[in-house]
Structure prediction request, 558 residues.
Amino acid sequence: MKQKKDRVSFALSLLTHIAAAITILCLLFIIAYILIRGVPNLKPSLFEWEYNTDNVSMMPAIINTIIVVLMTLVIAAPIGIFSAIYLVEYAKRGSKLVKVILLTTETLSGIPSIVYGLFGSLMFVISMKMGLSIMAGSLTLAIMVLPTIMRTTQEALVAVPDSYREGSFGLGAGKLRTIFRIILPSAIPGIMSGIVLSMGRIVGETAALIYTSGTVAQVCTNIFAPGSTLAVHMYRLMSEGLYTEQACAVAVVLLVFVIVMNSLSSYLGRKLVKG
Amino acid sequence: MQLRENAMRIVFMLAACFSIVAVFFICFYLFINGLPAIAKIGPMNFLAGMEWAPSNNLYGIFPMIIGSIYVTAGAIVVGVPIGILTAVYMAYFCPKKIYRIVKPAVELLAGIPSIVYGFFGLVVIVPLIQDAFHTSGNTVLAASILLGIMILPTIVSVSEASLQAVPDSYYEGSLALGASHERSVYFVCLKAAKSGVLAGVILGVGRAIGETMAVIMVAGNQAVVPGSLLHGVRTMTANIVLEMGYATGLHREALIATAVVLFVFIMIINLSFSALKRKEAKA
Prediction:
C-alpha cells in the first residue's frame, strides 16, 4: 500500500534528489568541459622532448612528475607503513605516545598545502641549503602525504583477522616474522590503495611545490636541480596568460591520471574487503 | 633473534614518532621566521591594519583575513546544504545500483587537483558572472561557488559516514510511530548524526580556508576589503603565493607571518574538529 505523502515529506524528498543531482552534475560538467576543450589541444608536439617558448611541451614536466612521485613515495611509504605497524601491532591502545602521534597525524592532514610549501622552502631550500630542487619538493610532499599512507595502512592492518596472528604465533613464528610474512602480505591491497591515493595527491599538488622544487620547465638533471611537475607547469602556463589551450591539454592529462588512480585505488580497496 | 625483534620494534616506534617531529619542525620554522615580523610591525598594525602596501612599508593583513573569512563563508553557503542533502541521499534514498556510481563520483570530486578546479573556475564560472552582472568576473562570488564545489566531497563523505552509523532502530522506531520516510530521516536520523555532520562541515571549512591555487585563479586578488559579493578579494593563502616569489626582507617575513596567522586559524578549526569527533565517538 503506497501512502500519499504529506507536503513536508514531498518537499524534503524533492530537495534531497535535487542536491544529489547537483553534486553529480558538477562532476560530470567539470570532466566533460575539460575533456571537450582539452582533447582537441592534445597535439603530438606537446609531448616532444624539448621545452621552448614556441612549443610549451609538457614532456619534461611529465618526467619530473614521475621522478617526484617516486622519490616522495620512497621517503614516505616506509615511514608511513612502519608507523602504522607500530600503532596497530605494538603500541598499547590509549597510551600517551599513541595519543600524541594520532593528534599530530591529524594536524598534519589538516595543514594547507601552501603552509607546507612555505615550510619546505624555509627548512629544506634555505636552512638545509638544498636550493630549489626536486629533493626539497619531494621531502615536503613526503610529509604532506604521510597521514594518508598511515591512515590507510592502519585500516588495512586492523582488517587482518586476529586468527592469522594467532595461527602464526601458534606455529612458533616470532612477532617480526608474523608481521612481515603473514600480516603485511594480506594487507597489501589496502596499503597499495593508500599509496595510489597519495600518488594522485602528489601529481595534483601545486602550492607546496612552487617554492620548493621551482617552476623551471626543464627535466631535472639530478635530484638537487629544480624542475616543475605537471601541475606546476599548468599553473605557469595559466598565469602567463598566453597558453590557455596548452593549459587545457595539461588539465586533460592530469584529469585522466587522477581518474585512473582513483579507480585503481577503489579497486584495490574492494579487493581488501573481499579477501 | 631477540635482538632483532627489539631493534625492529624501536625502528617502528621511531617511524611513528616522525609525525611528531614533523609537526614540531613546521611550527618551529614558521614561528621563528614569522613572529619577529609581527613584533616588528606591531601586532595591531599587522592584524588590524587596513593597508597592504609593501613598497610603503605598510603590512596590514586585515583585508586578507576578512577575504579568507568571506570566501569561506560563501563556500559554506554554497557547499553545506548541497553536501548534507547529498549525504542524506546516499545514506537513505539511494538504490544500491546508483550508490555504486555516486560513491566513486564523490571520491573523484575529491581527487581532482585544485589547479584543475582553478582552471575550470577561470574559464567557466568567471565569464558566467561577467555576463550576468557586467562586472569583472573575478569576485567573491566566483571564489565562493568554486570553493563550495571543492568542499562538497569532504562534507558528503564525513556526513555520510556518521549517518550510516546511526542505529537502524532509530529509523524503524520513527516509522513505527507513523512518520513518513522523509520525516524519519530528517527529523530523527539527521538529528542523531548532528555532531558528525558538523564535524564534516568544520573539516570543509578547513579545506576552504587553506585552498590556494583555485582561489587565486578566480578571486581577483585585490588586497582591499571587498565591498560586495561582486568585488575582488585576496585571501591569506593567495597573499603568500602571489608575493613570495619576489619578496625580500621584512616583506618576506610579513608573508611568513601571514602563514602563521593562517596556521593558527587551521589549528583552531582542527581542534574543534577532533573535539567533535571525540564527542561523536562517546555518544
About this structure: Residues 75 and 183 of chain A are 22 Å apart (CA to CA). Chain A has a mean pLDDT of 90. Residues 7-38 of chain A form the longest helix (32 residues). The domain at 42-274 of chain A is CATH 1.10.3720.10 (MetI-like fold).
